[in-house]
Amino acid sequence: MSEENNIKQDELHGSTPVSGMYENWFLDYASYVILERAVPAIQDGFKPVQRRILHAMKEMDDGRFNKVANIIGSTMQYHPHGDASIGDAIVNLGQKDLLIDTQGNWGDVRTGDSAAASRYIEARLSKFALDVVYNPQTTDWQLSYDGRKKEPVTFPVKFPLLLAQGVEGIAVGLSTKMLPHNFCELIEAAINVLKGKKVTLYPDFLTGGKIDISDYNDGRRGGKVRVRAKIEEFDTKTLVIKDIPYGTTTTSVIDSIIKANDKGKIKIKKVIDNTAKDIEIQVQLAPNTSPDITIDALYAFTDCEVSISPNACVIIDDKPHFLGVSDILKTSVEQTVDLLRQELEIRKAELMEKLLFSSLEKIFIENRIYRDIEECETWEDVLITIDKGLDPYKPDFYREITQDDIIRLTEIKIKRISKFDSFKADELMRKLTEELEETEHHLAHLTDYAIAYYQRLLDKYGTGKERKTEIANFETITATVVAANNAKLYVNREDGFIGYGLKKDEFVSDCSDIDDVIIFRKDGVCQVTRIQDKVFVGKGIIHVAVFKKGDERMVYNLAYVDAKSGRSMVKRFQVLSVTRDREYDLTKGAKGSKILYFTANPNGEAEVITVYLTASSSARKKVFDFDFAELEIKGRGAGGNILTKYPVRKVQFKSAGVSTLGGVKIWYDEVVGRLNRDDRGTYLGNFNPEDQIIVFYKDGSYELTSFELTNRYEPNQLLGLSKFNPELPVNAIHYDGDNKVFYVKRFLVETTTSNKRFGFISEAKGSKLLYAANSKGTKVEVVYKDGRSKEKEELDLQEVIDVKGWKAIGNKCPIQNIQEVIAIEEEPAEEEPKAGQDVDLDSLKESIKNEVEDEDNQMDLFGGGKKED
Asked: What's the predicted TM-score (pTM) here?
């Protein structure tokens, strides 16, 4: 019998299928958790437990602190759940330092320390909460769960609390995660919404740190942010972590660092937690460990960098909706404007009622209507008499006079009537009229009123709520580049195995346990595989090494025999990217092809080889040399050029060559403070292995560094950096804090130590470096202050001072009160054409011809002879 027939039989017998019951119960439970537990309402940004806590606190509020245990007890009148959940929610609200003033030990979100027991800590509503959350006149009320009390459906909140506090909740079938945003920026964004301007909001965390918002996607599903700790280099042996990422604690960060060290991903000696008022975690490095690479490794392998995926889910009309933060802000602004309108209308109605009764009172007393009721014998006669006395004035009132109005007049005491002052009554009515006119003006210009309201909040509560999280762009860190070498690579060439577990076999190099390994075999096959304890890659291994993806400097020189044609081929190629564990044929693919000669060249070197043909070959010249420099560098799939069509007995290395790649072009990205080869940022030049970079810091020091891409530079500390030319002087303008004078100095860099900063201006307080450059240009444009105006003047520094020692203070600058110094670009020298640039071929050929002739003449002068590479 089918399942459908079974269900019908159950229905005939008056029973419900178990599957049906579970389906209904699950949906009911899921709806309850979503609406009543985990997801906040868009109107006020509160989950039900938070709303009930704040309602209970308002009921208890007398301006003094209350024990949190008492608040929990009061909240349980409205919240049908345990005291533990209420206590946790109160602590969570208190730690956000916005709606609740706290007293006692409320824990620390930075360290993960929990709050003291609820009987030991106290809380009260903050002035901000009283200003923006509560208004009984505009609140919708409902009965509490037991019907004994009233509680708000939602609070009439006039501020985007949901975005300011952030929220996280896991329901049944969905979750919400909204990141907190900056208080001041939210108000400024709300004002911009009212002005019709486009707004963009980014998260801000109490824990500080740095945040990359490139993929924030307005806080919608699918977006993400990367949050980093602030790590500073205290010295060459110590790093200091100042801020930690949102969602982590100092304990979790330290544990992750120790774990990464135990796994060998980073190399450190000790971690010390000096956190007190401010976060400070010291990371002491192992000997001969690069601080720059270790910082990258901390970001790559520890909780010093975390990725957070926001998911803005809110309740709208009893249904969950996924919105962006800008949509939530606009909804909040619209609600705030509407609430302000309601409050103004309520105030207007109150003022009109006060004016009406004040007018009635004045008429009642000044026209002695109260005397007319002395002769009335019944209550009805009293009311009728007063009503008749008011008849002449009724057309002046904005509404009809009711019996309740007349009854209020009868309640005026004789003492008040006897002391009635007509002038004071007129003054009171004038003030009420002015306030009414002001209220009506606000209603007519509601947008301006709302802007003024937000501005008042910013002025009153914005102090101390500036952004704590620095917005930055993060470079992508390649884990294999920064991972510490925690393993050793071995190879068994005969049996075809590689791995870090073959300790009895041939040692290749140190490596990381997350590295990829590239293997070349005699049969002309290339393969890349992830390093393991022991893995079979094929017999006949001729070369094995750690694989660096995208390394354009690594060039392979290869000679092989093509089994199909019998010819020997040569090729130069790179392996930039591959599919892991896939075999690539470096020959033309004929079965039986084999490699005659192979080298791997880290800097694109091209050597000379000697080729020996077989004795039985018909070639007249059985031994000849070949220079790999004659070949172009192509892809791994290229067949190559013909070396010889005759059988080859052997190929031997003859002499080393030089790199055919030239120098490395380096750019500096000012946004992330990193070097790159991707044409991103400022072009620094073409670097050879011996070249260096000179870095100038705002504190008046310089530093020589290599051009390794792993170097880190803090953009906010830098005045500038460039390719170092030791033959050119440093031209500088600085301010001496002792003498209160601006100086010009020019000096040659005499130090040779790399990665060490040398100060070359006064160390007095207030001293600063305004300009420094290691270049031929000596002309600058100086912006200075002359009275109240700013002036500009061109200055040639070499006319002010000659080149002197690097410790000299320099000569007084002829211009003082300097605000800014701008280098004047000189005519650029001719450079080699870049890729894609047009070249005058005729000029280029003539230039090469002249260089060759000059070189031949020089060789003749010194005795001639064949020049070797």
From this structure: 0.76
